[in-house]
Fold:
Amino acid sequence: MESKHSDDVIGRARVQDTPELEAYYKELELLGAGALWTVANDIEPWEPKTASVPMLWKYQALRSLVLKSSELVTPEQAGRRVVYLVNDNRKAVSAAVGWLYTGIQVTRPGESTSAHRHKASALRFIMEGEGGYTVVDGHKITFEVNDFVITPNSAWHEHGVVEDGKTCIWQDGLDIPLINALEANDYAVYEGKQSLQSPTNYSPLTYGGAGLLPCNVHWDKPYSPLFKYAWKQVYPALLEAAKVNESSAFDGIIMQYSNPLTGGHVMQTMGASIQLLRAGEHTKAHRHTGSFVYQCAKGKGYSIIGGIRFDWSARDIFCIPSWAYHEHVNGSDIEDACLFSFNDLPVMEKLGLYQESEYPQNDGFQILSSSVQ
Structure:
């Protein structure tokens, strides 16, 4: 029978220190070595163990400070103006949760950032504004509120807002902490502006319509050729799916943003999803490996993460650490609520590290211990 949660069993390290052993450890330390049994139980936990804590960032509390950054520094000075969101337990690596980074970026009308690239992959979820655009490897993409945009690793990219537009704010998501932990990141600045390789919105117009794929266009890159997933198509798809599908017990109506050529994740290291919670819906609790960053795209409600209630409304951002029990509740009995999220599931799945389990209580709901407004 499998032993759980007790290290006082054969197969676990349970050596008692003695003066002789302590002297031995010091000898090893002088040679840059150590005895495995002194750390084995910490580095080989009984079950997945996260260093992150669940957190909620209220957009209305942050918004004025995000806008203030556009008064204090220029895009030329800062590269891009972002207020990044950091987990209380991941400050050393600038992560929001696990090995994922997120921040809130602002660009004013007539402004643009310099083109650059890096090994870290990036994504954007548009929060407010009009006339915003991005240029990814020579492909110019315009975006609107609640659109989801990807910037794959090593792709040249820049962002801007047209002169007659309105200040744009969006959430950035990157795997910078992961790529830095792997000691594989880099950064390069493009000299001047990228030359456009195709008509504006070529990517979403070519790959984003009605499930039809062009037969005469070749795409051989390991990420999605669809750089923008438009809310005006995504939200109706959720509503249509809700008409004929039962909700997931844990996530409501949930759909993965995917590479239209493969059906897989949009990028090699980060995936993203959008989910709809019907009016009054309360999902059951479960947990899984993989870190998640959420943004409320529509409606209001709350999530219970590790027994703590986090109340969210439109534009609020929150995180769920790996292996933390969580459940979601739509706070309205009339309207639906939608949650956007991005994650590191492509890494977990490719490395064979994904696992999940349901909350053990019969009703599947957690015992509430405290609340965060």
Remarks:
- DSSP finds eight helices and 21 strands in the chain.
- The chain has a mean pLDDT of 94.
- The two ends are 43 Å apart (CA to CA).
